[in-house]
## 1
Amino acid sequence: MKSVLSVVALAGLSEAALRFGCSTLSIQRLDPVVEPGSIPSAHLHQIVGGNAFNASMQPEDGDPAQKATCTTCTFSEDFSNYWTAVMFYKHQNGSYQRVPIMANDALPPGINGGMTIYYTQQDFFSNGNQKITSFPKGFRMTAGKVTATSKYSKGLKFVCLQNKSTRFPELDEFPTQKCNGIMTVHHFPACWDGKNLDSPDHQSHMYNTVNDAFVNSGACPASHPVRVPQVTYETLWDTAQFNNLPWPTDGSQPFVLSYGDDLGFGTHADYMFGWKDDALQRAMDSSCMFNACENGNPLKSQQPAQMNACTVQPTVDENINGWLSALPGMSIDHGDGVSEESEEYRECIMP
Ligand SMILES: *[C@@H]1O[C@H](CO)[C@@H](O)[C@H](O)[C@H]1NC(C)=O
Ligand SMILES: *[C@@H]1O[C@H](CO)[C@@H](O)[C@H](O)[C@H]1NC(C)=O
Ligand SMILES: *[C@@H]1O[C@H](CO)[C@@H](O)[C@H](O)[C@H]1NC(C)=O
């Protein structure tokens, strides 16, 4: 039996969990974490969050929360940036069309595209019993690896949606059947080494204890002792509008991620911390759950119309709409499905 003392001690610990929408900020070829300064980066990304987003964004360039004037996220003190690869439909005739992003129906209506972002403590339902430390200013990390050709880690998932509330089963690769939409899920690691804002592979300063389906799989190791929020992205892709177009007859499926991956093992996501002052720490130290954290309890929040009004103009001038003859940035194809630019990219990201 738990002693009264330990119950009291647990009650003093934080229980907050954030789940909120961020509308689309920009869709363009920039990647300030993996390819800082490259205009354009190797492949197309969809980005949400603060409008300080640009090609470089090094820690010494300053605090995004000071530079940004708006954010596409519900929590108006969150000027972080969140991004993933973009999904395309590949026609049998070789043309590509970008798959639009649709809103999550767990969120208020009216949010334009974007993602659902989570900062949880340990898992979806129970919020753990330890201090959760906010990321420091300048912090960034990635999850997943473009070059992976088999399952890379837990927490990188695809869900074949029957409707927008479908959450299972979670797949490690693209579903091969026709779905009413596909959700991609990216869980980031939640154990930090306590020292480095980044690392050469953007991952070794973190340790992964996440499991599938928002379930945590253990304590942080001594090498990475600081428990930070468990960050997760969900993106809902409106694939249904392509279901009546030509479908491969060899058992494969027609969707591809923007770096040419039609299996999905290279699915990846980037995170750049940008909460104002101590807003994230205050939230993590509170006991609010999801939208109960809004309206100053303890976080300032805004409505979808204000979120949607925040955008950044593309720095990269290229067409990403309609039928395209190649994936943006992937035009030099040697017949192996790997473009010259993506080969350079692979070399530059290999640890
Ligand atoms: C990005 O923003 C920083 C800080 O405002 C600025 O110093 C830098 O020149 C910008 N870089 C690009 C490529 O726009
Ligand atoms: C492929 O099919 C689409 C839809 O019919 C069409 O618009 C596009 O021009 C075609 N591409 C090629 C290369 O024929
Ligand atoms: C949505 O799909 C799930 C199965 O994925 C099903 O259990 C649920 O009843 C469906 N909801 C609606 C509103 O149709």
## 2
Amino acid sequence: MNKLEEFIIENFKIDKKVLEYSEKCFGEIEDKFSEIDKITEYNQLKVLHAMQKNRLSEAHFASTTGYGYNDLGRDTLEQIYADIFHAESALVRPQIISGTHALTVALSGNLRPGDEILSPVGMPYDTLQGVIGIRPEKGSLAEYGITYKQVDLLPDWNFDWDGIKKAISPKTKLVTIQRSKGYEWRQSLSIEKTAELIKFIKGIRSDIICMVDNCYCEFVDYEEPTEVGADMAVGSLIKNPGGGLAPIGGYIVGKEECIENAAYRLTSPGLGKEVGPTLGVNPLLIQGLFNAPQVVNGSLKGAVFLSKLFEGLGFDVTPTPNEKRADIVQAIQLKTEKNVVAFCQGIQKGAPVDSFVTPEPWDMPGYDCKVIMAAGAFVQGSSIELSADAPIKPPYNVYMQGGLSWHHAKIGIIIGLQNMVDKGLIKF
Ligand SMILES: *Cc1c(COP(=O)(O)O)cnc(C)c1O
């Protein structure tokens, strides 16, 4: 036994058999890792180049307060985002609380009473259902006279081209395209599929705004949605592009007009992007962006490893280990509540923060069943850090994502598996 194995067995209480199985799986996916590394290298250079082009300097790390007029760091970071995403403009702010907030700002800034939203990729993410008004909430877009239509994916997860064409009417103002799967069991949308869908919609009417919910997809492939025709791409800084360092924030990138509309909603009509202090967090947003490709790299490797490990144990997984990835989320179908709880509790045990607490399923607001969430994160709720969550209902899917480094993701996943073995749920 080598020094590493000895350390793992002694300190993390991993059975020799579990470790051997993990290493065997790792051996079979190593070639996937070099593909991931190439994409990471490209994205690292893309970020570096944008920082150099915009002459990023120490002066940009200064903090502003109050109105935040002339916050050079903020304006420069926004230009860097715009360049990375090949967009005309960007809104990147600590005043945006989360991905849901960023999407809310993008939608409500660009829609007016009488307009209609179309989702051609099925039901949007749980929190967005409340924002749109699919699930009644105070202040939803529905209350402002904005209507909604949905076209589901076909059973084989392809687009329902006819259905989409029929659903588009003169009222259709904006199409929302969610790439990541949320709590659905479906394929996440690759950049190629996203591009194909946008091209189809623009072919029907070119003035329809194509907005992409890009959560969990940044830096996973060579291109971002705004490089393939999207008018807006939206995401959270406590996911991929914050690189694990951003303590808060969201981004919207895209067409100048769309971004201005969003900014007028985030701050005020007439004020837009001119105001908004960064309150000292700018260095973290900037350095986090610089780290983001590497952090996404670790997350992707962890996702492939989890997929391989559980596929090999006879569970359904999506994506499969060799499938091309569109996001950092790995879904595994664990079949029983006991399996789900044991796996998530194991992930928590492997965390750097709060490793000693035991997560339990609870009635979270906005969900129709109990949910268990494992997250021992430096930033509260950050899901670019190793985390796993699962709605407690058949077929008992667990969604795992994140990992600030591959080596943390790896041991975290092994501890998750070991916890299932300890509970007698899996036998070697
Ligand atoms: C995470 C996520 C969101 C936004 O969630 P927040 O928790 O508000 O950041 C929206 N859409 C998708 C697909 C997501 O994965």
